[in-house]
Each structure stands twice: as structure tokens, then as C-alpha cells.
């Protein structure tokens, strides 16, 4: 159950990185009472679905050795053994090893939406959300220009959400591993939780609000 809390504010910047003042963040996105249980459940499901499940080890039937018994059954003073594919021998099979499998878990859409709002409200309450008018970088030296603006804002790492798919924005930030670049349409709950800090454009803020407008909230 999501309960509304007081209005949260964030710092607002121009596209050149100049501070404009404070802006009130949408209460429907950043003004709910965080639910730790929902966040934990959504994180667990996200991590499960990210597993590849391609690990594979060889069993006794996968090894191409002679099936001959390595030594006689009795009167050797040692333990009884069959062929050399047993797990106890060097270069033998793996006992109960992993095999390829599908890792997947489902979560109701309402809980997924609630987890997103809880995550956004958590970082907003911790003053880790910043808003910028827009992200526009012009050639040449896109990355240098982007870094200069982000350093001016004081945003050294985190999640950046923008609205339009701008080729120059992607080119400017693709080699900067400290930033995760997403649009308002494809950003996920796990992106918010993993990064913990958010820089969002004004247009993306409106798009994100529209995206979660349909979520029913129990008051």
C-alpha cells in the first residue's frame, strides 16, 4: 500500500549547467511512502531474470574414457572402483554439477510499479535527484562537453533519464562507465535501485509521469 508523503523538491539546472533554483517533483512519482518489502521482492525477481543459466559440467556419460574397471574388485587394499570417469578421480566427472536451465520469475505489474515509485521516492527523499532543462551536445568533442556540464552540476555518477533518442547524447556518454543512460520509456526499476542517483530532463519527467499515471494507488 502506497501512502503519500510531503512534497519533495529537487535542484533545477539549465542545459548549460547553471543552477536555476528548486522544483517541486511530481507527488505521484516521488511523493509516496517507500515500501521496503516491495523493493526487496522486485530486486529478487530482477536478479533472477538476469541469470543466463548457461553453466554446464560434464557427467560420467559425457567423458570419453575406457569403460574398463581400473583394477580388480578385491584384495588390493584400496577402495572399490569402476572406470576412471568417477567424480573422485582427477579429470573425472563432476558430481551433481550445474546444467543449463531457465531462470525466470514473474511479478505482478502493480507490484513492479509500486517498487518503481518506492525507489524513486527513496532517492528523492535523500536529495539524490536533479533536474535539467535538456541534454543537447554538439560536435566536436561531445564527451568533453558532456563531462564539463555534468561536473558543473555536481553529478559525477548515476542514472541519466532523457526523453528523445538523441544520437549525440548517446555518443557523448557511451564511453563513460559511471553513467547509465536510459529513456523515460525503457528505464527499469533495477536501474534506479542500482544507480541510486538520478539526473532527469524536464521532458523525461513528464513522460515518466504519464507512464505511471495508470498505476492505481491504495490510499
TrEMBL record:
Q: What Gene3D superfamilies does the record tag this protein with?
A: 3.40.1370.10
User: Can the keyword Ribosomal protein be found in this entry's annotation?
Assistant: yes
Single Gene Ontology MF annotation:
structural constituent of ribosome
User: Which family does this protein fall into?
Assistant: Belongs to the universal ribosomal protein uL4 family.
Classification via InterPro entries: Ribosomal_uL4, Ribosomal_uL4-like, Ribosomal_uL4_dom_sf
GO CC terms, sorted: ribonucleoprotein complex; ribosome
Q: Which GO terms describe its biological process?
A: translation
Q: Which domain of life is it from?
A: Bacteria
Name of the protein: Large ribosomal subunit protein uL4
Keywords on record: Ribonucleoprotein, Ribosomal protein
| Database matches in NCBIfam families | rplD_bact (TIGR03953)
Q: Pfam families from the xrefs?
A: Ribosomal_L4
Q: Does the keyword Nucleus apply?
A: no
